[in-house]
Amino acid sequence: MRNKIIIGNWKMNKTPKEVKAFFKEFNKATFKARPKTIYGIAAPACDLSYALDERPNKKFVISSQDISKHLSGAYTGEISALMLKEMGVTYAIIGHSERRTYHHETNKDINEKAKIALENGICPIICVGETLEEYESKKSKKVVETQVKECTKGLDVTKVVIAYEPVWAIGTGKTATNDYAQQMCAVIRKLTSDKTLIQYGGSVTPESIEELLKQPDVDGALVGGASLKVDSFIKLIEKK
Ligand code: PGA
Questions:
Q1: N or C: which end of the chain has fewer CB within 10 A?
Q2: Ligand 1: lining residues by beta carbon, under 6 Å
Q3: Which domain holds residue 160?
């Protein structure tokens, strides 16, 4: 049986003070976490050290939202795997659709970033997913297959996480149906392995997560909006 993995993607939200307030409230709460589930949050770069200091324990994983494809040098504004690793960051979201759109990241960039992450002990969460236009023109399967193939080229796919996030479902309140999420995650499974953890992302809520996690090829969720508040985040990760 594969583990589950639920990661809150905070995107560009929360100042250091707000991160501290989140964990102050989170650490006071009493709940039982889902069994065999990796959980944590992906914080903005400047918040990572606060999140690492304030998290309840090491079981609560901290992820970055990006990583440089270089290890060091003249790359202003970038953050390397070595830096993240030394801090205690263990996951990195790579190729989120917002980075593909606003920063023009390509499958090749994402592949290089995932490679350097893996080589330096950081688990890449590689994001894939079709746009609304591609979905409507029935190209989803083909687009996602190409993304997965190109982004994981030459990598040990048993050691990466893939987040399937249809772009039309991100931040829109339009979740894919459970069947559709399963169907697409099964496509990804065929190109990866039985050991690969595959998340669904896109308007996941505490209400929708339960049925999603029952899908045989959905091993977890990457959650934006619903991960920002402590009570909602806890509802995502607590044992039912
Ligand atoms: P959302 O974001 O849950 O707010 O739709 C998900 C994501 O972009 O990872």
A1: N
A2: 9, 165, 170-171, 201-204, 222-226
A3: 4-237
Q: Is 96 one of the catalytic residues?
A: yes
Q: What is the pLDDT of residue 1?
A: 83
- 98 CA: nearest ligand 1 atom: 8
Model pLDDT, residue 175: 85
Instruction: Look up 105 and say whether it is catalytic.
Output: no
- Point out the ligand 1 atom lying closest to the alpha carbon of residue 169: 5
Predicted pLDDT of residue 208: 96
Per DSSP, the residues of 153-214 read: TTS-GGG-EEEE--GGGTTTS-PPPHHHHHHHHHHHHHHS-SS-EEEEESS--TTTHHHHHT
Nearest atom, ligand 1, residue 226 CA: 3
Per annotation, catalytic residue among 96, 105, 112, 130: 96
Question: What distance in Å separates the CA atoms of residue 165 and residue 7, rounded to the nearest whole number?
Answer: 13
Where residue 154 falls (left for φ over 0; alpha for ψ -120 to 50; beta otherwise) is left
Q: Which residues of the chain have pLDDT under 50?
A: none
Domains in the chain: how many in total? 1
pLDDT value at position 46?
A: 98
